[in-house]
Amino acid sequence: MRKNLLLMFFAFCMTGLFASQADLFSYNAEEVEAQFSELTRLENYIEENSSLSFNDIILSSEFANANISNELGNSMASGFTLDEMDWGGFLWGFCCGPCGVLIVYLQKDKRTNERMISSLIGWGVSVVVSLITNIATGFQYLSYY
Amino acid sequence: MRKKAILLFLMFFCAFSLSAQVFSRIEADFSVKEVGSNGIQRLTTGKVYFDKNLKKVVYFTSFPQEEIIIITDSLTYQVQNDSIKRKSKAINLASFSIFNLSLNGNLPYYGLQNTFYELTDIKNEGNMVISSWSLPETKKTGKSNILLLSQKDKLLFGLITMAPDSIIISKQFFEKYTQIDGLSFPQEITQFFYYDGKEEIKRTNFKNIIINNFSENKYYNYPVPPGR
């Protein structure tokens, strides 16, 4: 009897030790709704007042204190552009080539997607500049003969 | 006897045709709500069109401003007043959009079965089927190569992206499925993004969804303006 109780207790502890992956697939819906409440109110207001512009709505007393951006959402037009260039990362790649890219990669605290891409672009630009310089130098030598 | 055989064949053919319905276009009204980690909020509304044969997602935004976003598998264009305002590189954004995955019947596994990701584990937990996916050793980028995917009633429910050290990078939830002409489509997608200890939340809602509308070609195949 004692052995069975011990086994049951042990099995109970084991199930508690390994949290199920199903727990990862949950979120606090009420909290999220609360975070979106202002935007939901804005969405309903737009539906009822479709002729008003963004400025009309935001400057109105209804949303005077709302912290709402007039830019499109981040993922609507995603992709890497010059605006996202990390010039520090670019310089590492441009000046130090693949070593610079590796250094950027190893800087875990500063490493971002944009910084990595910028360092790769910097490296690429340095290669192109070197090629152009070499070709120009080659032509210069040729002109002496 | 001969007539009966022909009738049977016709019935079988019709049944087969109906079950093999092809979905090639989808359009919907959409709204995207975002709350950034800095407290700034964004709302974008409008209409979206997608044709899987053209592999082009076209967003006509009405709020906060009227713009057209054209997303292909190689480039994304932001168009305003018939000229390109911004152009950026993008890889497979159209192929892995919710629209293309849904129309091709690949949404349950988020199209992962057609990528380098390999299924490493699958199990039942409660009312969910959870599968784990990772890149083979030779193709690991060292960035985010572990995906957990969950399904409820054979429909995609959640997708979690984890870094190699099991740090969660993002979570996505696909909910409020609706049936339109035999196609199941989620009307609400909630996304959580985590970096530097901060969280950003985004929710996309779809309504007035229409499948296989072949009359609005000018919207589905909106041309990219010349220049830039």
Features:
heterodimer, A: about 140 residues, mainly alpha, B: about 230 residues, 3 helices, globular
Element string of chain A (H = helix, E = strand): HHHHHH
Shape of chain B: globular
How confident overall, as mean pLDDT of chain A?
Answer: 70
> How much helicity do the residues of chain A have?
55-70%
Strand content of chain A: under 5%
Number of strands of chain B: 13
For the biggest sheet of chain A, the summary is: none
Helix count, DSSP H or I runs of 4 or more residues of chain A: 6
What structural class should be given to the helix and strand makeup of chain A?
Answer: mainly alpha
Residue-averaged pLDDT of chain B, rounded?
89
What structural class do the secondary elements of chain B suggest? mainly beta
Unreliable sequence segments of chain B? none
Biggest sheet strand line-up of chain B: 6-5-4-3-2-1-13-12-11-10-9-8-7
Q: What can you tell me about this protein's structure?
A:
- Chain A is mainly alpha-helical and 145 residues long.
- Chain A has 6 helices and no strands.
- In chain A, 63% of the residues lie in helices and 0% in strands.
- Chain B is globular.
- Chain B has helices spanning 2-19, 98-103, 217-220, and strands at 25-35, 41-51, 56-63, 67-71, 75-80, 83-89, 118-125, 128-134, 146-152, 155-162, 168-180, 183-195, 198-211.
- Chain B has a 13-stranded antiparallel sheet.
- With 228 residues, chain B is mainly beta.
- Classes of the chains: A mainly alpha (145), B mainly beta (228).
- The interface between A and B is large, with 33 and 49 residues.
